[in-house]
Structures are given as C-alpha cells and as structure tokens.
Write a structure and sequence with these properties.
Number of strands: 11
Oligomer: single chain
Distance between the termini: 9 Å
Strand order of the largest sheet: 2-1-3-4-11-10-9-6-7
CATH architecture of the domain at 7-119 and 155-192 and 230-240: 3-Layer(aba) Sandwich
Shape: globular
CATH superfamily of the domain at 7-119 and 155-192 and 230-240: Class I glutamine amidotransferase (GATase) domain
Largest sheet: 9 strands, mixed
Order of helices and strands: EHHEEHEHEEHEEEEEHHHH
Amino acid sequence: MSAPLRRCLIVRCGDPEPAVSDTHGCFVKWFRNAIDTSVELTVVDPRTDTFSASALDGVGAVVVTGSPHAVYESHPWIPALEALVREAVTARALPFLGVCFGHQLLAQSLGGEVARNPRGREMGTITVRLNDQGRDDALFHCLPAHFTAHATHRDTVVRPPPEARVLATSDKDQCQSFKVGRHAWGVQFHPEITAPILRGYVRARASALREEGVCSDTLHDAILDAADGGRVLENFIALAFAR
C-alpha cells in the first residue's frame, strides 16, 4: 500500500484580531510554524474562494481553523464548507482535525448542535481533562490525563454528532474534544496558538473581558509560556502521515 501524500489542506475560516495579526501573522502562518516542514500545506479560504470536493484531491489530511464567526451564522459559505467536511470525513475518510470553529463545524456538519456557551467565555491557559476514551486515543499520545492548553472561544458543542465519542472536557466546556469514526477529531482548544499569540488576544479583548467581569491583566499573567496542547497537532500529523 502506498504512503499517504504528505500534503495537508488548511481550511482558513477567518482572520485574527488586527492587533494580533499585525504582530503574529494569519492563522495559516501559525499552523505552518507548528507543522513539520516536510508536510506541504495547501490553503483554501471558503469565505472568498470558489471550491468543490476537488479541493480534497491529492491531500492526505485536512485541518479546519478557528474563526471569529459562529458556525450557526447565516453566511453562504458555511453550508458549502459543511458539504466539504462531510465529503472529507464520510465519503473519503481523510484524517481530519477541526480546531475551535473547525471543531464546532465538524459537529454541526455531522448532525450535532453548537450554541453560545452558557458557562461563558473560556480564555487563557486551561486544564483539559481526558476521559477513559480520550486517554486511550492516539491523538493524545504522551499527554497526561489532565493537561494544559491554550483556549479562546464563546461557543460550544452542546450536542455532539450521533456516534461521536467525547474524549475530553474542561471546567467550562463539556466537549473539549470528540472523535467520529477512525480518523476525524475536533478539539475546542487551540494546539497552534502560542503564549504570545494568546496574550495578544487577551490585550485585544480587554474591553469585552472587563464587561464580562474578568480582569484581563490577571488572565494575561496566568497564561503559561509552554502548554501541553500543542502536542495534539504533532500527534495528528504523525497519525495522518504514518508510513
């Protein structure tokens, strides 16, 4: 059997806060910095690009990024992207990783439900807790049962897709990760975000945090320079392109 193509499709679903992108670049750059350079990245932006299932031709894995948008918003590109997700996961069984918005989109595309998190915004370095299935899943290889990760989101998967297995939770989110089939995962946290990027987000959203009763300085200072969650992206790439 031939080895999977070492080409990963990055579906870019948004842009960072301007103050963050001015310093750290776009979402694609963050994934490029985190993914082994032996893996070629191709990019599609569903907001602006015309695309079809052929976007999946010649790729060995798919990653869907975060976004400032919500998956339940009425943008015309979201249903088209849902169709691409179903093609990748159900029809082609490609290794798939949805991150934050991508995690929520995977859930919605396959019959789950996403809504504003009643527990409120989750932002900063958080503790992710693996359940028994999560501890046995290769996506979390070499990670402890409780590990640190960087997060920033207000929506949550309130109902995972049928047949999905929830793998992890946190204090504010009961679906930090789930898996569908053998090769498709969603993670609510951000394995591609570094501490400087997350600190930039906290500074950019200081006013909104203040309105929510959160001290941005305290949140900023609690961000860990090194979080364990980045290992998840390394594990996904290793699984997708294993020989």
